[in-house]
Amino acid sequence: MFISFEGPDGSGKTTQIIRLVEYLRAQGRQVFQTREPGGTPIGDQVRDVLHDLKNEGMHAHTEILLYCASRAQLVFQEIQPRLAAGEIVICDRYADSTLAYQGYGRGLDLDTLRLILNFATHGLQPDLTVYLDISPEDGLRRREQAAQHGAEWNRMDALSLEFHRRVYEGYRVLMDANPGRWVSVPALGEPDEVFARVRDAVMARLQSE
Ligand code: TYD
Question: Of all protein residues, whose CA lies closest to atom 25 belonging to ligand 1?
Fold first, then answer.
């Protein structure tokens, strides 16, 4: 089973993924946890280029291809072999992030993006996508607070609130187009409360497999 997590910046995906991985492992399940961009030594080098605030001159097409280059390496090197071995794969962001950020956020042609994504992922789609729902304004507030406590502030964080609003609307369109794959979880509230919702959604899906 392949589970991706999506959501605006500041939605708390990473915290929730750590808890879910612990929970599933405590049940004796084999879980592989990874993230995008990155997740492999080659992908981590690409991540550094993508996030570096010095690279503000990066063309949008370059950005897409770099996200997809990192993703292709992750799919072929890790995700496909782990799924073939029967593991649960949990990925912090996947192809939907490219549609939301580069497609809806930057306004790039969605059909072209889908072709590139299909090539990069070998057509591999998640079985379940957990969406952590937070408004762009609340997400920004959380990220600013985290950055004051030493968290990374990257090239995408630095984009305008308008950009992050388009990303948010884009996620809604993606979810509405494929309601069977997505489960939306309100992300505001205590981490325990949010986790209970994430856990219930994932367990319901695992038990129905
Ligand atoms: P990261 O520090 O991993 O943030 P988060 O914890 O919110 O996932 O940064 C990833 C950033 O890259 C985030 O702003 C979303 C963006 N992104 C894209 O724009 N396109 C993509 O295809 C992916 C995977 C990420």
Answer: 97
For ligand 1, is residue 135 a contact (CB within 6 Å)? no
* φ and ψ at residue 40, rounded to 5 degrees: -140, 165
pLDDT, tens digit, 9 for 90 and up, residues 102-161: 999 999 999 999 999 999 999 999 999 999 999 999 999 999 999 999 888 888 888 889
Q: Say whether pLDDT at 209 is over 80.
A: no
Task: Give the global pTM.
Answer: 0.95
Q: Give the CA distances from residue 50 to residues 59, 108, 132, 174, in Å, rounded to whole numbers and listed in that order.
A: 11, 17, 23, 24
* Residues 151-191 pLDDT 10s: 888 888 888 899 999 999 999 999 999 999 999 999 998 99
Which structure tokens are listed for 97? 């992030």
77: which residues sit within 8 A by CB, 6+ positions away? 40, 42
What fold, for 2-208? Rossmann fold (3.40.50)
Question: Which sequence spans correspond to the domains of the chain?
Answer: 2-208
Coil, strand, or helix at residue 167? helix
Look at the block and give the residue holding tokens 């049940």.
27
| Alpha helix stretches (DSSP H) within 75-107 | 80-84, 95-97
State the DSSP code for 183.
E
What's the chain's Rg over C-alpha atoms? Answer: 16
Q: Report the run of H or E that residue 131 belongs to, with start and end.
A: strand 128-133
DSSP at 181: T
- From CA 154, how far away is CA 56, in angstroms rounded? 11
Which of 64, 156, 174 has most ligand 1 atoms within 8 Å of CB, for mutation? Answer: 156
